[in-house]
Amino acid sequence: MGRYAVLVTGPAGSGKSTLCSSLITHAQAQGRSMHLFNMDPAAENFEYEPSIDIRDLISLEDVMDEMQLGPNGGLVFCFEYLMNNLDWLEEQLNNAFETDYLIIDCPGQIELYTHTSLLSRFVNLLTQNFNYRLCALYLLESNFVDDAPKFFAGTLSAMSTMINLEVAQINVMSKMDLVKRGETGETKGLLGRAGRTGKDMDRFLEPDPLLLVGEANQKTNPRFHALNQAIVQLIDDFSMVSFMPLDATDEESVGALLSHVDNAMQYGEDEEPKEPKDMDMGDFADADNEV
Ligand SMILES: Nc1nc2c(ncn2[C@@H]2O[C@H](COP(=O)(O)OP(=O)(O)OP(=O)(O)O)[C@@H](O)[C@H]2O)c(=O)[nH]1
């Protein structure tokens, strides 16, 4: 068996940690073993104890205190520190060698995936030096469909992450149970408030450019209509963004996502086990940070 890693990314509060736990619970029920890798130096509580934890190397609180940095600068510092301490990472990954399947819970500051090369360097390290097959998940909350311009912004951030990381990526629309509640009217969920129904959601899961641009134009100054058109065209031309619906509280929904992830990484397809390559620390530690 090879080694597999799922990178769980997305904006703050999009449901990353909840999904990580749900995936592990689901896998365990199937007799599979998955291990949590916490990449968030500011994380507090986890349902499952992480097998690898960046907080064992560095904590955001210490960095902010000692380096006089704010939370975002501190986070970037923590990632640079990780990439400059690859012997620690190598030891952790080698200790976890028998675990084979890692679920990596990333911080919610999307600048890490879209504006810096830190996460893409980490991805290269896993795939090239440690022979992991990797799949990224990008979570966007269902409340991003409250209006079309907001949805465009979320979609472009998903796209930008996809381009930056250059690995198989599944975009996920999380918290879909809130949509269902809106539909039945039982609860004033986020989508209830926005008046969306399950049917309305289809056009956001598989964006239809014409419908979306019409809605965006209604809400934006005519000066920006050409820009709306250009953005929608971009999303459409590259056919790069569609979303898989997820309700992390529903086992069937989590199972369907896990099947997609397994397929994307060709999980379980036999291959010779590979030993990790000798690491050339210089490749990664000395790279420019482009922050
Ligand atoms: N209704 C509903 N709530 C969810 C779902 N997934 C997560 N949540 C809730 O959303 C909130 C944020 O979830 P987290 O899993 O902590 O989100 P996160 O992306 O890890 O957050 P950060 O680590 O701060 O970036 C919590 O209150 C969760 O209980 C879901 O599928 N449905």
Automatic annotation (TrEMBL):
InterPro entries associated with the record: Gpn, Gpn3, P-loop_NTPase
GTP-binding in keyword set: yes
Superkingdom assignment: Eukaryota
Protein name as annotated: GPN-loop GTPase 3
The family this protein is said to belong to: Belongs to the GPN-loop GTPase family.
Complexes and interactors: Heterodimers with GPN1 or GPN2. Binds to RNA polymerase II (RNAPII).
Gene3D superfamilies reported for this sequence: P-loop containing nucleotide triphosphate hydrolases
UniProt entry keywords in alphabetical sequence: GTP-binding, Hydrolase, Nucleotide-binding
Chain intervals with Acidic residues compositional bias: 281-291
GO molecular function: GTP binding; GTPase activity
Function: Small GTPase required for proper nuclear import of RNA polymerase II and III (RNAPII and RNAPIII). May act at an RNAP assembly step prior to nuclear import.
Claim: Repeat is one of the keywords in the record: no
Region of interest (Disordered), ranges: 268-291
